[in-house]
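User: Design a sequence. Structure:
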């Protein structure tokens, strides 16, 4: 999964899809004989700018997208996609006579209100996550497969049982990250929920281990990761319910 420490509303993999960038190459991955990166100017993306001085990295891209999203929000008065806002402080409305003790009711008998900084209010509360299950290759909940029979195992399918009734709340994260937003694997190709079983389908290159991106520069070029090698892919991921808890 293309990720960065800088949070973005737009998934980086979705950005690549919009621009027509090969998803595997965007995740610094390839399969040499079926999805090779060719030419003197390949579209293999690095994680950090210091890995290729003349290329934009995913970290650079995330910072730019974050900046643009913030500028859009400032211009239109609300964020271009749903997000949780915290630590926004407002002074409670006071009586115009400072010697009078105010109450929570205005002169019309209604509860006092205030204008939030951002519009398009959806729901009060804060982000919360609860672990649904850990999907593993050994347990059979995480499966890499060749669905179209072309010799390339490009599909990752996760199947877990859950009591969650809204499939939009089911999210997948790399293990040991406690459901931190910057470690969410997104976007899914599809999500379905039937009879208490959630099925989520992704591209296999979205499960390339982030540790494989931390390659140091040498006299040789940094090599793209072969996403068909089992050791380069996650053998387990965590499935969480993400919701608003009041």
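Assistant: Done.
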């Amino acid at each position: 999964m293309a990720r960065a420490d800088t949070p973005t509303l737009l998934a980086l993999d979705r950005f690549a899809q919009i621009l027509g960038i090969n998803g595997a190459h965007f995740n610094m991955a390839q399969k040499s004989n079926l999805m090779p990166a060719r030419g003197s100017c390949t579209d293999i993306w690095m994680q950090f700018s210091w890995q290729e001085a003349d290329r934009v990295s995913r970290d650079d891209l995330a910072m730019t997208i974050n900046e643009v999203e913030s500028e859009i929000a400032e211009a239109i008065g609300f964020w271009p996609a749903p997000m949780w806002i915290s630590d926004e402080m407002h002074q409670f409305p006071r009586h115009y006579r400072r010697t009078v003790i105010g109450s929570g009711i205005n002169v019309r008998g209604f509860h006092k209100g205030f204008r939030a900084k951002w519009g398009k209010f959806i729901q009060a509360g804060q982000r919360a996550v609860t672990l649904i299950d850990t999907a593993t290759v050994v347990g059979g909940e995480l499966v890499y497969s060749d669905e179209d029979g072309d010799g390339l195992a490009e599909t990752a399918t996760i199947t877990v049982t859950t009591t969650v009734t809204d499939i939009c709340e089911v999210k997948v994260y790399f293990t040991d990250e406690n459901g931190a937003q910057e470690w969410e694997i997104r976007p899914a190709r599809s999500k379905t929920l039937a009879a208490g079983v959630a099925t989520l389908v992704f591209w296999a290159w979205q499960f390339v281990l982030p540790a494989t991106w931390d390659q140091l520069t040498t006299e040789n070029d940094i090599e793209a990761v072969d996403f068909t090698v089992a050791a380069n892919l996650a053998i387990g991921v965590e499935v969480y319910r993400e919701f608003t808890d009041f």
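Helices lie at 12-18, 23-26, 58-76. The CA atoms of residues 11 and 106 lie 44 Å apart.
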